[in-house]
Every structure is written in C-alpha cells, then in structure tokens.
Write a structure and sequence with these properties.
Length: 81
Amino acid sequence: MDRMQLSVEARNTNGKGPARRLRARGRVPAVFYGFGTSTTLSISVPHRELDRAIGTNQLLGLVGLSEVTGKPGLLKAFQRD
C-alpha cells in the first residue's frame, strides 16, 4: 500500500505569533514524536496535504527533513478552531 506523503519543515519558534505567521503562509504547526526517543521535533506541514491526510487512517510518509525522512508517521490528534 502506498503511503500518503507529507512534506515537513522544521520550525524553531513556538507561540501564538509564529503559529499565525505559519498559517498565513498555508502551513500548519505540528509536533513529531520519534520512535523510541524522548525528544520531540517541532515541524510544520502544508495545510492542503494535512487536510487530505486527516480523512485517512494510514501511515504517512514524511519527507523534506533529514530527521524524519523515511520514517512513517501517524496522525494522532488534531484541533480545529
């Protein structure tokens, strides 16, 4: 089965202001929890790609960032306002 691909970018700022600027650019802030590691990685995902992934119940392929490229991801939770 082919995995849906999400292109991710690292983000090094957190908070309301940077998140709003990301959303204005069409990206959504997210957090990647790694396999067997206690560290988390703050990332951003394109809004359109994430919308397509929300309706699926499959593993997602993450590309674009060396820390996550090739690792499968699973959408655990999301919030909409």
